[in-house]
């Protein structure tokens, strides 16, 4: 049985603000005054500032000296640029973690996929997107390069925000992504890193295609 880790006020504030941003409760470029945010969350400014710093590191908000934080903007070009960077990082990450893959790690990946499946079966697609993010962070967790892991976390947060803003119900793409995740795990379990990298490339390319479909539909008000 795993021990229960205590959740700090900063952690709770981070998650609450992140959820509000990704679900569109806070609009692009909306100002987040510290006093107002602290009062709304029922906490002091110290844990709030810790939460804001973490959100800024993930690219979800923008902080400037002497000014309140602002929700980061979203546009097609920046989203595609982030996806391109994410693809390079994710594919290369498989090469870096390949010597550290074992049966326990494969089992953890399978458990994550099981949670993805449950989210799809219960029509909780916003939850699926979060578990999808956790899948990629789990792959990065075997990377000994801390900066690399942090960068993967940042780009994944940005990509997930794009998908949540564009569509909160993506049953078709969720099922497709689930299959792609399983194929990556199968290749890793067989210790075929080249095949796993190819499957990740396919996955990243498909993520971009799905994003473009949603973006086009939004522009056309479909």
UniProtKB/TrEMBL annotation:
SMART domains, sorted: FCD, HTH_GNTR
A Pfam family assignment: GntR
Statement: the UniProt record of this protein carries the keyword Ribonucleoprotein: no
A GO molecular function held by the record: DNA-binding transcription factor activity
InterPro entries the record matches: GntR_C, TF_FadR/GntR_C, Tscrpt_reg_HTH_GntR, WH-like_DNA-bd_sf, WH_DNA-bd_sf
Keyword DNA damage assigned: no
Family matches, as Gene3D superfamilies: GntR ligand-binding domain-like (1.20.120.530), Winged helix-like DNA-binding domain superfamily/Winged helix DNA-binding domain (1.10.10.10)
The protein's name in its UniProt record: GntR family transcriptional regulator
């Amino acid at each position: 049985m795993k021990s229960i880790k205590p959740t700090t006020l900063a952690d709770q504030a981070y998650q609450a603000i992140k959820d509000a941003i990704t679900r569109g409760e806070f609009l692009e470029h909306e100002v987040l005054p510290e006093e107002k945010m602290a009062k709304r969350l029922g906490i002091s400014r110290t844990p709030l500032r810790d939460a804001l710093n973490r959100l800024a590191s993930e690219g979800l908000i923008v902080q400037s000296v002497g000014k309140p934080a602002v929700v980061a903007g979203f546009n097609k070009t920046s989203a595609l640029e982030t996806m391109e960077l994410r693809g390079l990082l994710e594919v290369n990450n498989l090469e870096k973690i390949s010597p550290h893959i074992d049966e326990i790690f494969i089992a953890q990946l399978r458990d994550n996929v099981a949670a993805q499946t449950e989210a799809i079966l219960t029509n909780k697609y916003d939850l699926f997107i979060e578990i999808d993010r956790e899948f990629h962070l789990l792959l990065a967790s075997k990377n000994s390069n801390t900066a690399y892991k942090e960068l993967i976390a940042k780009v994944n947060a940005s990509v997930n925000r794009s998908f949540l803003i564009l569509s909160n119900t993506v049953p078709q793409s969720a099922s497709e992504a689930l299959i792609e995740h399983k194929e990556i795990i199968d290749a890793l379990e067989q210790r075929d890193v080249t095949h796993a990298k190819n499957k990740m490339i396919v996955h990243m390319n498909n993520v971009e295609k799905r994003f473009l479909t949603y973006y086009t539909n939004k522009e056309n008000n479909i």
